[in-house]
Write a structure and sequence with these properties.
The protein is α/β, with parallel strands linked by helices. 36% of the residues lie in helices and 21% in strands. It has nine helices and seven strands, in the order H-H-E-H-E-H-E-E-H-E-H-H-E-H-H-E. A seven-stranded mixed β-sheet has the order 3-2-1-4-5-7-6, sandwiched between helices. Strand 2, helix 4 and strand 3 (116-120) form a beta-alpha-beta unit. Helix 1 (32-45) crosses helix 4, helix 2 packs across helix 3 (76-84) and helix 8 runs antiparallel to helix 9 (268-277). It is globular.
Length: 307
């Protein structure tokens, strides 16, 4: 389960991180070492959003001893936790060892390697390797890659110390990268992509091993795991046009993944528009347009183990 917010190969939006994700349960066919730089760069693009989320968490979680990033990807968020909570030990957990290698290297560069560890393995079972319970367990857009989310939340809850907090980043709003009318094709391209993407996401969930359908009421699911829901808050990433080189590269990668994944569900005109947007030689392409931006919203839900 490699996540770090968005982002892995076949799901650049429904995952992040974080990096990001797409059913990577038989993910042996994914070249995580090759994808590492892109995943890390994408997560860095979202650093300001994560910093605000972690600052918000710090209002509730004071002086944690152990913080676990469940589905850490290349460790961008895990290292931000180390910065936000200088007294904490950080453990990054992910199913892709090449991404954990990047996480360890990042911790070394940032001078926090002495309190930074990693565990390679699939969630939630890999959490059984923790030496002691977590005071804060973060699952950033990784939970929706697990077939039985309710069971996974219960497993996460069992790894919390009494008084410990589980923070789940799931949901928010579909991203926007372009105006409604971009001067080519039919206006409203991203809204139509949203509808197709929602159907794709439903199928992705249904195809996961052990899939159980759940109403995506995260506070209710946290309560069902035996925790006391505390807060929910949505954090905005607002990178206005003209986009930086990193933001532009992220948008190109994101729409390229969508084009590959959703081609059979979009109509010919929208495919042709996407192809123009992705063609570096086209004057109307994402590579050249002055109106490219990044606007995304991710929601974090917290709950506390009271016993």
């Amino acid at each position: 389960m490699a996540h770090d917010h968005h982002d892995t190969a076949h799901e650049h939006r429904h995952d992040q991180g974080h990096g990001h994700g797409q059913g990577h349960h038989g993910h042996t066919d994914i070249d995580w070492a090759g994808m590492g730089p892109m995943l890390e760069s994408s997560a860095e693009l979202f650093a300001s959003l994560y910093e605000r989320a972690l600052g918000w968490l710090a209002q509730e979680v004071t002086e944690p001893g152990l913080i676990v990033d469940a589905g850490s990807g290349p460790g961008v968020v895990a290292c931000l936790f180390a910065e936000t909570f200088p007294g904490a030990r950080i453990v990054a957990v992910d199913g892709a060892e090449p991404l954990l290698e990047r996480a360890r290297a990042r911790a070394e560069r940032q001078g926090v390697a002495d309190r930074f560890g990693t565990i390679a393995g699939e969630l939630p079972d890999a959490l059984g390797e923790l030496d002691y319970p977590a005071d804060l367990l973060w699952a950033g857009r990784s939970l929706h890659h697990l077939g039985d989310q309710r069971a996974a939340l219960a497993a996460f809850a069992r790894r919390l110390a009494p008084g410990g907090t589980l923070a789940v980043m799931e949901g928010g709003l579909p991203p926007r990268y372009l105006p409604r009318d971009i001067g080519i094709g039919r206006p409203g391209l991203q809204a139509r992509i949203d509808a197709v993407e929602a159907e794709w996401f439903t199928r992705m969930r249904q195809e996961l091993p052990g899939h159980v359908a759940e109403t995506e009421d995260w506070p209710a699911l946290l309560a069902a795991a035996g925790l006391k829901p505390t807060r929910s808050h949505t954090f905005l990433l607002d990178l206005p046009a003209p986009a930086s080189d990193r933001a532009r590269a992220y948008v190109i990668a994101s729409l390229s993944h969508m084009r590959d994944r959703l081609a059979q569900a979009l109509d010919a005109e929208d495919i042709a528009t996407l192809d123009r947007l992705l063609d570096p030689g086209d004057e109307a392409s994402l590579h050249r347009r002055p109106d490219v931006f990044v606007l995304e919203a991710h929601t974090v839900h917290t709950a506390v183990r009271t016993v």
